[in-house]
Amino acid sequence: MAKMYYNGDANENYLNGKKVAVIGYGSQGHAHALNMKESGVDVVVGLRKGKSWDKAVNDGLEVYSVGEATAQADVVMILLPDEMQPKVYKEEIEPNLTNQALMFAHGFNVHFNQIVPPNTCDVLLVAPKGPGHLVRRTYQEGAGVPALFAVYQDVTGEARELALAYAKAIGSLRAGGLETTFKEETETDLFGEQAVLCGGLTSLVKAGFETLTEAGYQPELAYFECLHELKLIVDLMYEGGLEGMRYSISDTAQWGDFVSGPRVVDDRVKQEMKAILKDIQEGQFAKGWILENQANRPVFNAVNRRESEHQIEQVGRELRKMMPFVNRAKDKQKEVVVS
Ligand code: NDP
Ligand code: MG
Ligand code: MG
């Protein structure tokens, strides 16, 4: 098994006397800033004027422009949306860099050369393997979300020590830290969200729903069967792996799992997964996404609109209205985002 790092592996005092600037106050930003503050770290937040600025001030944090926060910090953690990072970096962060340590929560921009850090800075990442709101909530509960950490450039010889101290301060070393590289973190994160967590799953759910409704079954029933119930199954997998889930389902369901699962996800699907991984590794996916953003997202917006009109969404919206306990406020939906 790979070596896992826990609280005892981090130097408690490493961040003493250092100032950390958290740039961005969204899903990850608010969690990192507040957790670190409560862990005793000297934190400031870097933002533009707006919604997040007001929220961070209300949460009791010191807030500056991105440039001012960068200039006064020893450690700069960039928690802006990935597609915004290159521009903000070029215009507001880079001009204020001397020898600060530069940190990320995802390796995309550095790995694909959209951000090229100066050779005077340590460059590292701490990537919690979970949504920001859980990074915050689990910290408050005395637990944490596991994190990957990686060093890309080590000028001071202390980059690894910083990564561990930072991961500890946001609560992640309570759950476990795993060392990786920018390349491995970037490629596996993109693959996971495309093939399994987001892309694979939404396509599986829709195909199941369409198969039932096209055969004349009620859409409401198909929604419960193929989408709603998924959470209960995934919770069991989260708690006990595949075997834990299979322990709880009926033997009939388990037999169906064994004989039909491999018919759904067959060799052709696996070959396609390999092709998706290759596109990621060779930069094809990154290129497409970067160009899509430069063109103001025509495909993203068109598909997003079409998807929101799918029957499964229309039926689901109606059914969830009657289940207020699952119908969470819009501002909390970010919590279920995989990034
Ligand atoms: P969000 O989309 O939640 O962050 C948005 C924040 O960035 C807001 O505070 C927004 O402020 C601010 N912002 C946007 N544009 C600018 C700008 N031009 N100048 C200043 N501030 C700006 O990002 P995430 O937390 O989802 O992602 C941050 C990083 O963490 C990414 O690298 C991502 O890959 C990584 N990550 C995310 C995970 C997640 O759970 N979402 C999981 C693991 C890693 P405003 O209110 O002004 O718009
Ligand atoms: Mg991810
Ligand atoms: Mg991601």
Automatic annotation (TrEMBL):
GO molecular function ontology, one term from the record: ketol-acid reductoisomerase activity
Domain of life: Bacteria
InterPro entries: 6-PGluconate_DH-like_C_sf, KARI, KARI_C, KARI_N, KARI_prok, NAD(P)-bd_dom_sf
Positions annotated to bind substrate: 250
Binding residue positions for Mg(2+) 1: 189, 193
EC number: 1.1.1.86
Keyword Amino-acid biosynthesis recorded: yes
Residue ranges constituting the KARI N-terminal Rossmann domain according to the UniProt record: 2-180
Pathway: Amino-acid biosynthesis; L-isoleucine biosynthesis; L-isoleucine from 2-oxobutanoate: step 2/4; Amino-acid biosynthesis; L-valine biosynthesis; L-valine from pyruvate: step 2/4
Family: Belongs to the ketol-acid reductoisomerase family.
HAMAP family noted in UniProt: IlvC
Task of the protein: Involved in the biosynthesis of branched-chain amino acids (BCAA). Catalyzes an alkyl-migration followed by a ketol-acid reduction of (S)-2-acetolactate (S2AL) to yield (R)-2,3-dihydroxy-isovalerate. In the isomerase reaction, S2AL is rearranged via a Mg-dependent methyl migration to produce 3-hydroxy-3-methyl-2-ketobutyrate (HMKB). In the reductase reaction, this 2-ketoacid undergoes a metal-dependent reduction by NADPH to yield (R)-2,3-dihydroxy-isovalerate.
Name the UniProt record assigns to this protein: Ketol-acid reductoisomerase (NADP(+))
Gene name tied to this protein: ilvC
